[in-house]
Amino acid sequence: MILRNVPRSLSRVLGALFLCAALTAALAGCGGGSAPARPSSAASTAAPAPAWAKGMPTVRADALPPQAREVLALIDKGGPYPYRQDGTVFGNFEKVLPKQKRGYYHEFTVRTPGERDRGARRIVTGGGGEFYYTDDHYETFKAVLR
Fold first, then answer.
1. Does the annotation mark 107 as catalytic?
2. Of 107, 115, 130, 139, which one is the catalytic site residue?
3. Would you say 35 and 29 are in contact if contact means Cβ atoms under 8 Å apart?
4. 77-82-84-85 Cα dihedral, nearest 10 degrees
5. pTM
6. CA–CA separation, 54 and 39 (whole Å)
7. Among positive and negative, which fits the CA dihedral 66, 141, 55, 73?
8. Tens digit of each residue's pLDDT (9 = 90 or more) over 52-63
9. Chain centre to alpha carbon of residue 62
10. Contact in structure between 50 and 71 (CB atoms under 8 Å)
11. Catalytic annotation, pick one of 94, 115, 137, 139
């Protein structure tokens, strides 16, 4: 189709749109739809979230940073911990984690490479066997699936 009496700038825009549409169709296989999505290996091997993690973002323990995995191993062994604050009561003052009685949660420092102090990363454990990870100093948490 040839467009007559159309300003040159408009015909260029229309041509670019036509080219985009043609490329999109070609990349989708010209089948009129998109290619079927392949599940990622993380999604296909993830265990269902436990009830205590309901509605929270989750992370598999093996997907945590290596320093966090080291802390999980120390918690499993019962220490010793490198920071004197490790194992102390976490107050949940931010109210991001489910409400529990004081003393239910305990925190452990996850070393951050390049930081001179404790940094922002923590593992928080719950008295019912829960594990949570934060990398932004308690603003958000992910339930750790073990």
1. yes
2. 107
3. yes
4. -70
5. 0.67
6. 22
7. positive
8. 988 899 999 999
9. 13
10. no
11. 137
What is the DSSP annotation of the chain? Answer: ----S--HHHHHHHHHHHHHHHHHHHHTTTSSSPPPPPPPHHHHHPPPPPGGGTTS-EEEGGGS-HHHHHHHHHHHHT---SSTTTTEEP--TT--SPP--TTSEEEEE---TT-SS--S-EEEEETTS-EEEESSTTS--EEEE-
pLDDT surpassing 90 at residue 27: no
Query: Is 137 a known active-site residue?
Result: yes
Between 86 and 45, residue with greater pLDDT: 86
Q: Look at the chain and count its residues.
A: 146
- Look up residue 129 and give its two tokens: 């066997």
Token pair for 118: 């404790």
